[in-house]
Amino acid sequence: MSVNYGSKRVVVGAGYGMRDWLSQRATAVLMALFTLILLVSCCCPARWAMTAGRASSRRSG
Amino acid sequence: MAEVTKQRPGTMRLVDAVKYRLPLAGVVSILHRVSGLLMFALLPFVIWLFDNSLQSEISYETFTSAFLAGIGFLPAWGVKLVVLALIWAFLHHAIAGVRHVWMDMTHSVSLVQGRSSAIVTLASSAVLTVLLGAKLFGVY
């Protein structure tokens, strides 16, 4: 591995390993996607009703 | 030697830490933690709202009355203020999180990029909070 100390130090914050990093990112992206789907389903209930049945069309009606 | 020892600052306490002026990326970072902590602390309230909004028509009345008449000693505007804090916390946390994903994917970790993306994060979360807050308090 190349020199990454002294003046060549890479300041990127704390490192907890690949596993922790990846599980954080995976769950975060999942939550972001959930939010997006929720927003879309709330903003266009008509379009959502076609796929999700009558549940949301009752609310919008 | 004794003089030198006396002048050493010792362990940094929170009062010392807040004296440092953070760069904007640092402000975003500390607010990321604050917003995360806030949402975690208010999780029981969020679950209470969610539960009441779905369980039955009677519980839905409880849900709406929280915003119209308040909950117990907490007036309606107090409930709305708490919800507004949650709205800000969610928006800031989400946008700051997306900023992290963007930095990972494009290796955008220079000082200039960090500063400009921090400005975008702070500005967009503030604007969206004001817009949704105006809706929450019935401005439009």
Overall geometry of chain B: extended
Q: Approximately how much beta-strand content do the residues of chain A carry?
A: under 5%
β-sheet strand percentage of chain B: under 5%
Mean pLDDT of chain B: 92
- Mean pLDDT reading of chain A: 75
Oligomeric form: heterodimer
Name the chain pair with the biggest interface and residue counts per chain.
A-B, 6 and 6 residues
> What is the CATH class name of chain B?
Mainly Alpha
Uncertain runs of chain A are none
Explain what this protein looks like in three dimensions.
The complex is a heterodimer of chains A (61) and B (140). Chain A is built from three helices and no strands. With 61 residues, chain A is mainly α. Chain A has one domain. Chain A is rod-shaped, with a radius of gyration of 22 Å. The model of chain A has no long low-confidence stretch (mean pLDDT 75). Chain B has 140 residues and is mainly alpha-helical. Chain B has one domain (23-136): Fumarate reductase/succinate dehydrogenase, transmembrane subunit (3 helical TM bundles of succinate and fumarate reductases), CATH 1.20.1300.10. In chain B, 79% of the residues lie in helices and 0% in strands. Chain B has seven helices and no strands. Chain B has helices spanning 2-7, 14-17, 24-41, 43-55, 57-68, 76-106, 111-136. In chain B, helix 3 packs across helix 7, helix 4 crosses helix 5 (57-68) and helix 6 runs antiparallel to helix 7. The mean pLDDT of chain B is 92.
Short structural description:
The complex is a heterodimer of chains A (61) and B (140). Chain A is mainly α and 61 residues long. Chain A has helices at residues 18-43, 45-52, 55-60.
